[in-house]
Amino acid sequence: MPRKNLRALLLSSCLLIGTVADMAWAQSTPPVLSQPHAIDIAPQALASALNQLAAQTGLQIVFDAAKISGINSAGANGMLTTEAALQAVLAGTGFNYRISGTNAVTLDLVSGDSTDLAPLSVTDTAETETAWGPVDGYVATQSATGTKTDTPLIETPQSISVVTRDEMEARNVTDMSQALAYTSGLISGGHGTSGAIGGDTVAIRGFGGDGTTGPSSNEYIDGLKLAGTGYVSSAFDPYFFERVEVLKGPASVLYGQSTPGGIFNMVSKRPTEDFQGEIGFQAGNNDLFQGIFDISGAMDEDKEFLYRLTATGWDNDTEVDFSDRRRYAVAPALTWRPNEDTSITLLARMQKDDFDSSPLNWLPTRGTVLGNPYGDISSSLYTGDTNYQEWDRDSYAIGYLAEHAFDDTFTVRQNFRYNYNRLDFKGVYLQNLRADQINASRYAFGMIEHSNDWTLDNQLEAKFDTGPVEHTFLLGVDGQILDNDTKRELGLWTDLDVFDPDNDNFANTVAPFRSQAQLSKQLGLYAQEQFKWDDLILTFGGRQDWTSGELTNRMTDETTKQTDDAFTWRAGVLYAFESGFSPYFSYSESFEPEIGTDEDGKPFKPTTGQQFEVGIKYQPPGYDSFITLSAFDIKRQNVVTADPVNPSLSTQTGEIGSRGIELEAKASLADGLDATFAYTYLDTEILKSGDTATGIDGDDHNVEGKQKAAIPTHAGSVWVNYTFQEGDFAGLGLGAGARYVGETYGDDANSYKVPDYLLFDAAVRYDFGELSPSLDGWIAQLNASNIADNKYVASCIGIDRCFYGAGRTIIGTVKYTW
């Protein structure tokens, strides 16, 4: 039952967090000194400066008031860790400190004349994080995805989730759906092992990722939209990204056409000043063999030129028969900094996927979700044909991220990327299970597709004050051109016995059914203002978009042109209390062009979306953690549906609603202990529609008032990772996680349900540097997902279109880092 599995998830969450927390507290004290704070201590007497420091950080400072009488402190100011602020306050005073408790330090007089002491070196670790850089641990504090400016998450009035590089490595993610599997508001991996081929299926707040080949309108890299059909734009290797960020809710004000559920933005690894690198090898079940390589550093002593080279390659089978996959990818990067105010980073990426498998390997409903008199269908069933299968995809990208600060007020940025994709695909897919419930009809589908995608974003940022109000103003102009060419073929194939399949039964009956060229253009002008008056923060933004499309049908020699324009806006208010709580409220809009015409020959209007969101963010002072609780209501209009009078035509009467509650928490509870927790309640409904859908009973059902297929009402996850810091087990890391996805409807008619499922993951890691300094940098890791090897259906998107989820996966890693 669904409630049983949900209770199991909550119980396992408590047990995991409680057990590992006990281990952590037994091994070490809380990292009070490493916590960041906004410090404001003016030059004054040392005694009063220490009292202010204690009040602003929660640190207990033990000192003899008589000994420090008459001594002054230079104070401290800025976003500093507790330790950095303490060192700044004590600099030049003749006093140092020692840890004397879990939350206390004691001052000691340094021998010698204090006037001869050099100032202590202050390392401001809190300021090292930027919106585009790495994060130490699981808890990010800065992001640009929600504002296109380097803004603290605690000051952004919209829900944003960040999956850091450290979290991805701890879970050893191999595709984007795995990277986002522990994020609230998202449903990923709904197409099982098939989704990792054509595109990772990621639905945000009930929208996006609901096609057969993954999303094509909610993916971004470095803030630039990935355009394409969904076949060629997805499935980039997560090893190339420093962080993955999810902006939840409509995002058109900053990004133009997008789904109302939100976007996820992949932030590329960038060159570093300090020399660093890693090289490793991975092996796992299903004959996985993978190599990884990542090296970065400065090319000259002045660090004017920085470089980075990241590469990976792997070969593996899957649990599905006749499904061998190979990937080779490399991403070079170069940064030029002619002065401290200017930087240009060149980013390139080359990825080749050569798969003997298909993203269309869906299975019958009876035999997976519902009973079949002849038993359950095997999770290894391949519905294709070895004589007609190919997935050969090449993806190349080159671009740059340029920034120049004229002064403390004005900064300009220009981001550009050209992306080329080529795909040669052939596959046989299942159409319907016959009445005998043994044989299934099949079709063959093939395509050759090329796309050229140019994306440019120009930004002017101005920071200034008017009296007590701080302003961050952003003005931008962005554009995108997509030139896409496709040739497709379709044909009837022989039936398949789903219990005794013959995958070598050649039947070449395919014929061309589409040959077309499409040229799409978008131009957007946007502006945003962030007001900060003490702790009150207001964010406003507006955008005007112009889009045009030209579709040439080479089979009929006809050309169709369409133009659209739309204005979208958003507003948000947030109050950042000194206690760490930040309640907020926001409104935002989205739009997407719809290609086609109605029964009168009039072009379809763009779909529109609106969201109201209220929530509270909490960043506890003194603790490296971040919690977000949000509630939202989204409406999407102008959805194209079948005409109720003439089903062969389409009309724009559709409206879809999505509302829910999300809770997400990330924390480092003690030295070496990281945890993430997420829970989502989601209520989706087809509010208006002229469509009918055939149910599992064979009857047609009106879908109005029904719940969207493949979207669960409840979902949750918890992951805990602990690394021993000292003692006999120093260097040993243990991780454990649980993922719960509630039951879903298998079709829009809501004629049958897909059961819920609960999966468990685990990880073991060891740093050999704890054994001997000569082994420093050598690391071994073992990851297992779905460790119980549960056989489950990840989702269904219609009758006889069901996907088994991935079974047990075990991957071992050995790498050397420096």
UniProtKB/TrEMBL annotation:
<dbReference type="InterPro" id="IPR039426">
    <property type="entry name" value="TonB-dep_rcpt-like"/>
</dbReference>
<keyword id="KW-0732">Signal</keyword>
<protein>
    <submittedName>
        <fullName>TonB-dependent siderophore receptor</fullName>
    </submittedName>
</protein>
<keyword id="KW-0812">Transmembrane</keyword>
<feature type="domain" description="Secretin/TonB short N-terminal">
    <location>
        <begin position="59"/>
        <end position="110"/>
    </location>
</feature>
<keyword id="KW-0798">TonB box</keyword>
<dbReference type="Pfam" id="PF00593">
    <property type="entry name" value="TonB_dep_Rec_b-barrel"/>
</dbReference>
<keyword id="KW-0406">Ion transport</keyword>
<dbReference type="InterPro" id="IPR037066">
    <property type="entry name" value="Plug_dom_sf"/>
</dbReference>
<comment type="similarity">
    <text>Belongs to the TonB-dependent receptor family.</text>
</comment>
<dbReference type="InterPro" id="IPR010105">
    <property type="entry name" value="TonB_sidphr_rcpt"/>
</dbReference>
<keyword id="KW-0410">Iron transport</keyword>
<dbReference type="InterPro" id="IPR012910">
    <property type="entry name" value="Plug_dom"/>
</dbReference>
<keyword id="KW-0472">Membrane</keyword>
<keyword id="KW-0998">Cell outer membrane</keyword>
<dbReference type="InterPro" id="IPR000531">
    <property type="entry name" value="Beta-barrel_TonB"/>
</dbReference>
<keyword id="KW-0813">Transport</keyword>
<keyword id="KW-0408">Iron</keyword>
<keyword id="KW-0675">Receptor</keyword>
<dbReference type="Pfam" id="PF07660">
    <property type="entry name" value="STN"/>
</dbReference>
<feature type="signal peptide">
    <location>
        <begin position="1"/>
        <end position="26"/>
    </location>
</feature>
<dbReference type="InterPro" id="IPR011662">
    <property type="entry name" value="Secretin/TonB_short_N"/>
</dbReference>
<dbReference type="Pfam" id="PF07715">
    <property type="entry name" value="Plug"/>
</dbReference>
<dbReference type="InterPro" id="IPR036942">
    <property type="entry name" value="Beta-barrel_TonB_sf"/>
</dbReference>
<keyword id="KW-1134">Transmembrane beta strand</keyword>
